Amino acid sequence: DPPPDLGGYNVTPDTSHVTRFNIMQFIDIKQQYKRYKPAIDARIQAVLDHGHFIMGPEIAELEQQLAAYVGVKHCITAASGTDSLEIALRALDIGPGDEVITVPFTWISTAEVIGLVGAKPVFVDIDPATYNINIDLIEPAITPQTKAILPVSLFGQMPDYDRINAIAKKHGLPVIEDGAQSFGATHNGRRSCGATRIGSTSFFPAKPLGCYGDGGALFTSDDALADKMRAIRTHGGLKRHHHPYLGMNGRFDTIQAAVLLAKLPHFQDEVDARGRIGARYTQLLSSVLRLPFSAPGVMKGNTHVDAQYTIRVPDRDRVGERLKAAGIPTAVYYPKCLHEQPVFGNNGYRWGDFPAAEKASREVISLPMHPFLSEADQDAIVSELRKAL
Questions:
Q1: Which of 35, 58, 121, 270 could serve as 114's disulfide partner, Cβ 3.0–4.6 Å?
Q2: CB of 100 closer than 8 Å to CB of 107
Q3: What kind and span of H or E run contains 196?
Q4: pTM
Q5: How far is residue 207's CA from residue 157's CA, in Å, rounded to a whole number?
């Protein structure tokens, strides 16, 4: 089966030359369903029985549990991680003429929503070790038009939000964490989506906590901001036929909330399993190539949920083809930086402006990673990778 998390674009492994291995899963959602099938089926059936498919009781139940898990007062679910980011920007009254600082090495949603509200994404380069925002470059990018900082916790690890928040406070700016890949990670004892004024995540099926369709959520401890984000999510109002804000239809489906409620009791075990599998990859490959950088030694208490296990190789495309020929699926997050995309062609950036991001985009490749990856499959992946290298 194709890897399910390529931003809506699926890539099927070439199996025409497979000789030794059955086709393995890049992310094994099927096995997860088999393990939790009774609970998932029962939760979905309950929604079918009560018939409240939009904003049913499971929505409030899930929001309460997620807020408690993250450690904030409010969770506001949304129709997708993209919608949740746009809702956050709208709630902060960001619009035409404004600037939002973010990174060029991420999925397009991060910068897309900035453009959708009429603002301009201002890119700063990444840290080549963690792939997260280079914090030293944030303050020089701030102008009188800057209205927010939107870092991305890429591949499952948070940047140093203590430093980012200090810069933001100095300049009176809100910070929005794009935690689409890092839900379950921690930084200095705070969970992803709970370290900034607003946290946003995605429940796309292949995320660390995924539903069976699109979905997302926002997190905050600001009461007024939470009410405003709830209103914007529901056509700009909290009461029917009363719309104080220009909103959107960004509600989360009740059936998808039911799926997450069935999965949530197992989530921490899955996070722990990802950590073990990621550590084993690192142990097996540490003498071979450049591996993901986990920062507990640099940022005390930092944990990585390994949403992707991303390595770097100079001849990425050749290595990927060799692995595909052996029946091992891979994915590239991301083959182009956002300043290379035509939609941002008028923003004034050119090749060479973000060397760390540009180099990463030509070298990164992600190996199969999910909580149920067996040691036998992992050994096969490592063996074929060594041959390809």
A1: 121
A2: no
A3: none
A4: 0.92
A5: 13
